[in-house]
Write a structure and sequence with these properties.
alpha+beta; about 30% helix; 3 helices
Length: about 140
Amino acid sequence: MEKIPRFTREVIQTLREDIDRALVPVKEKYGLDILTVESVLYSDETFTAKVTGDVSGDPEGVLQVIDARFFAMRHGLPEDILNREFSIRGDVFRVMRIEPRNFKYPVIARCTGDGKVYKFSVDQVKQYELRKAPSE
């Protein structure tokens, strides 16, 4: 194993991937729908990661899907917008959730290339073709 001299973007990306892989057995053990690293803040010497989990059958998760469908219908987006993908300048983004209370940037998507989470306005998302994500 190689010692990390300092945290860089590349090192953080590698760590994030390793942590996500390490979380898979925990996710399966406890029957979670989601257990993943959401965001990482770092300096040369330290990093902080936000880990998000979602319980299977959690009513809040069901409400999130219902809210997303209602929001999408009201704004002319596909009803099944969650997990759909769109491309911007060669980067592919997958819609993770909709935050209806965030009027300016309600569409939250993760870049499949670097794993970072981004916020988009409805108009930005409408500019790009939303397609179903390939099965994992």
